Amino acid sequence: MNLLKKLQSVGFSQEQAEVFAAEHRRIIEDSLVTKEHLDRRLRELESRLIIKMGAMMMAAVIAIAALVKFL
């Protein structure tokens, strides 16, 4: 039994069932994420992480160099 028939069987009119089903479908489709979207987001996050780790490593090298110079 499809959604429209189920809704009508519990008292929804044809129009109410169609509107509800269409809105339900839209909400689900808006919530779905594609594999391509996930892959793109993972690449973005990976790039940001690499940049941050590089900056931290550079700061550590500078701090060590400063300590060696002053000691």
Describe the protein in words:
This protein is mainly alpha-helical. It contains three helices and no strands. The longest helix is centred in the C-terminal third of the chain and has 36 residues, at 35-70. The protein is rod-shaped.
Précis, in short:
By secondary structure, the chain is mainly α.
Structural class: mainly alpha
Unreliable spans are none
Could you estimate the helical fraction of the residues in percent? over 70%
The overall average pLDDT, rounded, is: 93
Principal-axes geometry comes out as rod-shaped
Order of helices and strands: HHH
Count every helix, treating DSSP H or I runs of 4 or more residues as helices.
3
Which radius of gyration do the C-alpha atoms yield?
Answer: 28 Å
Tell me about the largest β-sheet: none
Secondary-structure topology with pairs:
Elements: H1 3-9, H2 14-31, H3 35-70
Helix pairs in contact: 1-2
List the keywords.
86% helix, 71 residues, single chain, mainly alpha
